[in-house]
Design brief:
Blueprint (H helix, E strand, L loop, with lengths): L1 H27 L7 H35 L4 H7 L2 H20 L23
Length: 126
């Protein structure tokens, strides 16, 4: 019986505290008046969110549409997907390198060659 009366007293005490707390919060809070600037601020925020959402959806749709137009059978994408072009490029570079070695020759400029028997004329300072 003591346990029952303790729980009843505790629940009554807690309910009274809750009611007092609610009454204090209702009576101490001043009534909020909505002004025109508050409603304009909310409209401005919603407008900005709408514009951002519209822009984001537009970018996503454009990206999806561009990917869909490419298609998997596009010859350009097929060319990139295969490794055959790596071998072709390597063969082409090796052929160009061998060709450049075959065309390589040394030209000698007789006037630029060092000639120890001849002296370079010097300007005489006056």
């Amino acid at each position: 019986m003591l346990a029952l009366s303790n729980t009843t007293a505790l629940s009554l005490l807690l309910s009274k505290l809750l009611q007092e707390c609610l009454e204090r919060s209702n009576s101490s809070a001043p009534p909020q008046e909505s002004s025109a600037s508050d409603s304009l601020a909310i409209i401005y925020v919603l407008l900005m969110l709408g514009l951002f959402g519209f822009f984001s959806v537009g970018v996503m749709v454009t990206n999806l549409r561009a990917r869909r137009l490419e298609g998997p059978r596009d010859p350009y994408n097929t060319y990139i997907a295969t490794d055959a072009w790596h071998r072709k490029d390597r063969e082409y570079i090796q052929a160009k390198l061998l060709e450049s070695y075959k065309l390589c020759c040394v030209l000698e400029n007789q006037l630029a060659v060092e000639q120890p028997s001849r002296k370079i004329p010097e300007e005489k300072s006056s």
